[in-house]
Specification:
It is built from 6 helices and 2 strands; from the N terminus they run ββαααααα. By secondary structure, the protein is mostly helical. Strand 1 (about 1-5) and strand 2 (about 10) form a beta hairpin.
């Protein structure tokens, strides 16, 4: 989303031709979004992004910082899934506990299934893991 402004420098705002008024409206909206994002964060986290120029920069900073799978957490969840037993719980309670762990694991892994042949196989494998 870069353009060259009238001074010959590069702006990060949009890639289509717009008037100066539209650009100012876009920058105003972007500033509002960035301000809202920073205001909704804790002080230690917001301190790391307050110097980002655009809300897009804030987003990419967060994606880089928090978009990685925590392997220790994933390992612990997998262990909890394998250690989960019905015991004296009802079937409903047991399944709810197990489904909660599966959902947490799926959220951490965030594996998106694709429609290609190999993607379908991976999706079926993950589905089968839940039945073991």
């Amino acid at each position: 989303m870069d353009t060259i402004n009238e001074h010959g420098t590069q702006d990060q705002f949009c890639s289509w031709n717009t008037s100066q008024e539209e650009k100012q409206q876009w920058e105003h909206c972007d500033t509002l979004v960035k301000t809202w994002l920073i205001a909704s964060m804790s002080k230690p986290i917001s301190g790391g992004v307050k110097n980002c120029k655009t809300s897009r920069d804030v987003w990419f900073d967060f994606q880089e910082r928090f978009g990685q799978t925590n392997t220790v957490q994933l390992f612990n969840i997998e262990n909890a899934i394998h250690a989960c037993t019905k015991g004296s719980d009802t079937v409903t309670t047991f399944f709810t506990k197990l489904k909660s762990l599966w959902d947490e694991r799926d959220t951490i892994c965030d594996m998106q299934a694709c429609a290609c042949g190999e993607g379908v196989k991976v999706g079926e494998y993950i589905k089968n893991l839940k039945t073991m």
